[in-house]
Amino acid sequence: MKALSKNTYREILRSPGRFLAILAIIVLGSGFFVGLRVSQKAMKETADTYLDKTAFYDFSIVTTLGLTGEDVEALAADPQVLDAEGSFETDALVNLGGSTDQVFAFHSLPERVNLPDLVEGRLPEAPDECLADSWTNLSVGDRVTVSGENEEDTLSLFAVREFTVVGVATSPLYLNFERGSTSLGAGTVAGFCYVPLGAFDADYFTAVYLRVPDMPAAYDDAYESRAEALEDHFTDLANQRAQARYDRLKADAEAELADGQREYDDAYNEYITQRADAEKELSDAKAELDDAKAELTDAAQKIADGEAEYADGQKELADNERKLADAKRALDDAKKELDDAAQEIADGRKAYDEGAAAFEEERAKAEQELADAEAELEGALRELTDGEAAYEESRKLYEDGEAQYAQGLSELEANRKTLEDGEAQYASGLAAYNAYAAALRASEADYEAGLQKLEDGKARLKEGLSNPMLLSLLGGAYASADELYDALMAGTVDQETLDLLDALAAMMSSELTVTEAVAAIKEGEAALAAAKAQLDSARAQLNASWSTLAASRRELDEGWQALSEGEAVLAESRAELDEAKAQLDEGRAELDAGWADYQEGLSAYEAARTELDEAVRTSQAELDDALARLRDAEAQYAGGQADYEDGLRAYEDGLREFQDGKAALEEAARELADAQAQYDDGLREYEDGLREYEDARAEADREFADAETELADAQAELDDARAAIDELEVPDAYLMGRRTNLGYVCFENDTSIVRSISSVFPVFFFLVAALICVTTVSRMVEEQRSQLGVLMALGYSRMKVMGKFLIYAGTATVIGCVSGILLGSWLIPLVVWQAYHIMYTFSDAIEFTFDLPLSAVTFALYLAAMMAVTWLSCRKEVGDVPANVIRPKPPKAGKRVLLERVPFLWNRLSFLWKVTVRNIFRYKLRVAMMILGVAGCTALMLTGMGINDSIKNVVDYQFTEISLYDYTVTFADPLTAADREAFMADTAGYVGDALFLHETTVTAVAGREEKEVQLSAVDAAEAENVPAFMDFHDGARALPFPQKDEALLNSALAETLGVKAGDRLVLRLEDGPEVPVTVSGVFDNYIYNTVYIRADTLPGTPELNYALALKADGADTGEALAAILGRDNVLAASSSQEMRARIGNMMESLIYIVLLTVICAAALAFVVIYNLTNINIQERLREIATVKVLGFYDFESALYVLRENLLLTLLGAAAGIPLGLALNAFVVGQIELDMIHFTPRVAPISYLASTALTILFSLLVDLFMLRRLSTIDPAAALKAAE
Amino acid sequence: MAFIEFHDVKKVYRSGEVRIEALRGMSFEVERGEICVIVGPSGAGKTTLLNILGGMDSLTEGRIVLDGEDISAYSPKKLIGYRRRDVGFVFQFYNLIENLTALENVELASQICPAPLDAAETLRAVGLGERLGNFPSQLSGGEQQRVAIARALAKNPKLLLCDEPTGALDYNTGKQILQLLEDTSRKSGMTVLIITHNSALTAMADRVITVRSGQARDMRLNPHPTPISQIEW
After folding, report:
1. What is the spatial distance between Cα B177 and Cα B197, in angstroms, rounded to a whole number?
2. Do A1277 and B91 touch (CB under 8 A)?
3. Range of the structural domain that residue A1036 is part of
4. A780, A882: one domain
5. What pairs with residue B15 in β-bridges?
6. Res. A131 pLDDT band, cuts 50 70 90
7. Is B167 touching A (CB cutoff 8 A)?
């Protein structure tokens, strides 16, 4: 291990309290957060596993007439159904050996869906075995007897009435303790009981449970949406099954009825036959007698008539002969008319055929013309399209040209610019050159003048030397003056001579001595030579720059040339482009003209087409008319022909009849004579028969009466059966999802409380963890300032030095987060389940889940935040130069606080309080953190207790102050006045009073807000009775029942819709009409959204289908509910008592939640106060030691520090109250329970308790710290500053 | 009977297996009203001596008598009372409470004493009459040490214990502080014990005790103490 790492490692070991404080807050924060988040998930997964294991249903179908095996098979065959199973369920009173009967819900033992989960024993096998509810205290071997007190209807459902318990189980249908209500006994079901299907004597199922394949996990949003998506399908299925069930039942009944009818009919027929036979015999006899009598009379008459007839016949025969002749004539006329008509029809047909041919020809011609026109139009279109393409192409070319031109132009401009710059440069160069040349010329002039002067000097010397006397004086050493001069110049003259010459010069009072003159000349020559060289070089330079200038002149000229050429080219291309543009525009114009022509041609073509179609239609109609007329004529002709033939046939028949008549007449004359002889024999026989007949008649009448009575009875029976069949209605089918299962829904509601709490805690802990880290690291940095300086001075990099703190905080975060997440994921669900296990017994252990993404995010967030605050805390120190860091930091200066400026208050403070107040304001961050931590502690407790208060109070308030009714009753059919009276009479003794009203669901619309609400409409006459059932008030103010066109709204609904008293509101009824109302008031209400109106506000007469009922004095709540539920037309009824009990039970688990928040708050308070006090003490060790040296007693010196804690605790607790109220409002808002609106409420005792507990926690930490403070050695005051 | 008597005082610190004898039978006496300078090298036991005499530490063996009271027999609680009433401390690093003004620092001591001097008066006496309301951070080192001395004096103690009072000060300021201590002692007859390792200061003392290896090696009386203003070092 490197020395630096060792240092870090030891730092952790050296201050374990400090390290553990960071660790603890991170464990708490991450643990609670992840734990609470995971708890809801874990609870749902536990439930899901159980529901999976027990094959919990997705949908159930119930019809009012039950369902059969056929329905189950049909449902199972549906592709959306994984499994279907019929179930028979009935409530029955059972006797468990005690004196009172209880109600059990009996279920047939399922094999595939909603399987019971055995806790003990085995599943029933024989019909007299049963599986008992684990919630009851039945155990294996106990006996369950279906009580004889049950109605006969109930008893008849059981084939077996005594059961032996062979197993105890839980059922997915009853997740929690709720077993539901019943119309039997005390109104509540005590438990369930599974028995084999064979134990029931029923040929139908009460429900079919369905499982759907591939359903998402229970309680998942995906489950809800999938279930919703399937609802329509299954509702259809349910209705189909209901229809099928009805058809089958009806068919069976009809068949039975048909059998009965057949029997009756047979019997009736037999009666009729027998009676008819008897009657026939009698009447035959009577008829025989009558016949005989009549025959006798007839015979006498006939004989007379026959004679008369005979005479008439002869006369008729003569008439007929005449009529036949007339008929013959008429027939001949008709024949002629028919022939004329045939001729006419043939002519008509020929004219029609000609007309049709002409029409076809003309039409073909017109079609051809149109086709040509169309081809022409298409050609034109193609040309135009080609033209457009060509145009586009040229346009593109033109645009490219433009672009090129623009580019050329800009290039040209650039060149011109360059050239102009060149010109300017050239001009300046030229000017420079000229100036230089002028200077050179001046220098040359100077040079010339110098040369002249030199020459003059030389001449003067020579002149001086040329004195002949001189030469002689020199003794002829020099031949001539020139020789002397040359020798002087060459320097070959000896000194003696020179002296002589100088002397001479002096004598001659010349300006210079010879020596000086020689020197001056030599100097001048040298100077001139130098000037000459300079001039030469200057000239050379000048020449060079001249040639440079000339060259750039040439370049510029070339450039200008090129530029003007470029301009020419550009001008040319401009002209070309302009031309192209003109051509393009021309082309466009041509194309547009072409398009116009084309459009014109097209519309002409379409007009022609329309005209043709119209003409064709008209001609065709005319032709069709002609054809129809032709056909009518032909039909008339055919009719005439038939009539004629009929007439002919009739005539021939008449002729034959006439001839027959004539023969008959002759026969009749012979018969008349025979008849008279027979008549006399008959009369004697007749008188004997008459006596016999009258005896038989009397006996038959007696027998008939008996048979008829019997038949009437049978008929009545059949009519009854028929009426029963007619009354049979298609049963109502109900599709029910999991949401209709109370246990399933309650479970989800209960988990929502856990979720709402989990959304509050983490923020606090996170903030506090960051603050603790800041204070701790800041303190460490301060303490180890010089150490840091040493490390930096030793040459450790800043990052390495800072690394110590990063590793310190990082280690705490990593260890804290990992252990917190693991511990939280395990412990919190465990604790939460302990609470919920009271109500949900289906699983002993919660399923532990580990939410990896959540954990990873939490971990990352904590690590990032801790690293960031650590970095921020030590950045300043580490960023400083080592020399500064190695020196101790001057202690934080004392300062006057604001309070001192209020002498009135300040002077009243005791001296030590002044010190405390100053100290508090000395470390603002620490104070902020302390207040935040303590405030958080108070707030959390207040929230926890507030949840308790809110839920408890809401229910109490709702049912004692607002909803005064004891029951709500929903009726199956609208109530008539008689129904109402019957209801009141039948439930007398149970129901004291009832308010009947119309209840429906409407959509309340206010501006853009819409909400589906329950609408209750009360008759105007009943309005004055309402206050006995519902107490409408707004705060302390009582609200009157609304008038016509007014409405009362509950407060939560008004808030959602954003309306208040006096605002307008529209109620959209289910069947469409909209009813505008004025809000007359907003009443306090927490359960359900309801709008109350007077019934006459609605159109028509609203049906009464709902009632609020008061329990009669002294009646038992459950029995009264059973009595109400026992009524035929009651669809559903619920008791306020039940609702209160249900919520009361939820409260039981809530206590654990409150406990959890209190523990959590305590932990928070401990960690924060401990950490801060610890740091406070460490930082002020010397101060405390000094105070001790001064003679403060232990308690006094402890108070010196802890007084701050007390003050800050009080401040924090005070700050925590508003925070807690806000949190409470938030958390309570998150809890949703069956349309119940919880209003955040905090009871005074909760304020008191949360504040008191906070102070208590703080005092406990102080007590702990007291021990530490007492161990501080006063001698420490002598030590050097750290 | 002398004002302060050390009788064979031993102090043993135990730290695990290690046993350190800080005082190995120290005996000396100091008379009332004397300025006593205790000199000795580092580790000689000077501070331990002061701690025990100041009632901040207990002794292992021996007896200490102050003004006739056997303070070595005091219970821890009685020792606190002793510190409160009878001893004034002056520290090397002043040990002022940063959050209190000069006056309040003095009051901090005087308010818990049975018979304190007036705090403001005491501060004026040490020459800080103008700076009563200043916080320590607004005072120079010398001024801070004056406040510390005022704080010690305001308790009106029997004994003033000074642990390297000039250790953190520059030469001139240190001299002024010593002057203040000298004046205080001479004027009010206060017994002053000064611990130092600067032997030049011995010249100002009435009594000089040299401590070495936990024992008082030498104790001599100075019949003619040199006023501090004449001492150079």
Report:
1. 16
2. yes
3. 973-1128
4. yes
5. B18
6. very high
7. no
- The amino acid sitting at A1109 is A
Please provide the size of chain B in residues.
233
Establish if A1166 belongs to a structural domain: yes
Instruction: Kindly give the residue spans of alpha helices, DSSP state H, lying in A1041-1101.
Output: 1051-1057
Interface test with A, best of B90, B97, B103, B138 (most A CBs within 10 A): B97
User: For residue B146, what are the β-bridge partners?
Assistant: none
Give me the domains of chain B, ranges plus CATH numbers. 31-60+76-230 (3.40.50.300)
A861: contact with B, CB 8 A cutoff:
no
Give the residue from A1074, A1105, A1128 where a domain finishes: A1128
> Interface pTM (ipTM) of the complex?
0.84
Q: CB of B78 within 8 Å of any CB in chain A?
A: no
Instruction: Please tell me the distance from the alpha carbon of residue A1251 to that of residue A1241, in angstroms, as a whole number.
Output: 16
Is A1075 in the same domain as A1046? yes
**Amino acid (1-letter code) at residue A730:** V
Give me the residues of B, 194-213, that contact A with CB < 8 A: none
Establish if A486 belongs to a structural domain: no
The number of distinct structural domains making up chain A is 3
Residue A1234 scores a pLDDT above 70: no
A contact residues 971-1010, partner B, Cβ 8 Å cutoff: none
Tokens, residue A1002: 């409407």
Shared domain for A1197 and A1102, answered yes or no, is no
CB atoms closer than 10 angstroms to residue A891:
17
In this complex, the residue of B57, B84, B93 whose CB is nearest that of residue A1191 is: B84
Whether A997 and A1116 share a structural domain:
yes
Q: What distance in Å separates the CA atoms of residue A775 and residue A805, rounded to the nearest whole number? A: 12
With respect to residue A763, please indicate whether it lies within any of the assigned structural domains: yes
Examine residue A993 and state whether it is found in any structural domain, yes or no: yes
Amino acid at A24: A
pLDDT, averaged across chain A: 83
Tell whether A1192 lies on the interface with B, counting CB pairs under 8 A: yes
A1115 and A1144 inside one domain: no
Domain's final residue, options A1128, A1157, A1182: A1128
CB contact A888 to B (< 8 Å): no
**Core vs surface per residue A1244-1275: b (16+ CB within 10 A) or e:** eebbeebbebbbebbeebbeebeeebeebebb
Please report the pLDDT score of residue A1185 as a whole number: 85
Distances (CA, A) of A1142 to A173, A687, A951, A1232, B176: 17, 99, 12, 15, 85
Question: How many other C-beta atoms are found inside a 10 Å radius of the C-beta of residue A638?
Answer: 11
pLDDT of residue A679: 66
At residue A1146 the predicted structure's pLDDT band, cuts being 50, 70 and 90, is low
Helix (H/G/I), strand (E/B), else coil: A736: strand
